[in-house]
Write a structure and sequence with these properties.
Blueprint (H helix, E strand, L loop, with lengths): L2 H22 L15 H26 L5 H24 L5 H23 L8 H18 L12 H29 L3
Length: about 190
């Protein structure tokens, strides 16, 4: 097993760690920033999430640079990304830190796109992430970081940047989902 695949597996293994920390550490334990209410729980999850996000960047970069692209990597990498991002978004909704509608739209989009990709794969078509799919992931990661930081430092000046970026990620998510649908609808509609 090559290094990019090991990094993907590490990212998947970090998902239950994130859940355990988020659910077991009290939200108000060890307040780090009294102005924003940033506590130890969010700080720990932020560190784990940031490390996992770095593995996402590294595994892709190493796989392309060294021609270590594998079928396992093509399959597992997007799953690892969605497991990590969607899990943290669900935890943030549970804690009333993220908008439930935005998160539900993004998760629904992921399910639809995954279904489209599976239909295309059955016909021998492998579809990699496009620009807007990658942009969606980057915006989601930035939104998560800001939400975990309780919108610090922007909360100090009254700018809800975390919410703005979350909704931007939602809009890009819907748009990229539409692009996937337009590209892959023939595989779904051919069996109707």
């Amino acid at each position: 097993m090559n290094l990019p695949n090991k990094l993907t597996i590490l990212r998947i293994a970090l998902v239950p760690v994130v859940v355990a920390v988020y659910l077991c550490v009290p939200a108000d334990a060890g307040i780090v920033n009294a102005a924003t209410g940033l506590g130890l729980r969010n700080l720990l999850v932020l560190i784990i999430f940031a490390l996992a996000s770095i593995t996402d960047y590294l595994d892709g970069m190493l796989a392309r640079k060294n021609n270590w692209i594998t079928s396992f990597g093509k399959f597992a990498d997007p799953i690892a990304d969605k497991m990590l991002v969607n899990t943290v978004l669900i935890l943030l909704v549970w804690a009333h830190a993220a908008n439930v509608v935005a998160v539900l739209i993004m998760i629904a989009r992921d399910l639809i796109v995954d279904g489209l990709r599976m239909s295309a794969a059955q016909s021998g078509e492998v579809v990699s992430a496009g620009f807007f799919g990658k942009l969606k992931t980057v915006l989601q990661m930035i939104a998560i970081l800001l939400l975990l930081l309780n919108n610090w430092p922007f909360a100090l000046i009254g700018v809800p940047l975390a919410s703005i970026v979350l909704w931007a990620a939602t809009i890009v998510s819907v748009y990229s989902g539409w692009i996937y649908f337009q590209k892959l609808k023939k595989y779904v509609l051919e069996t109707m």
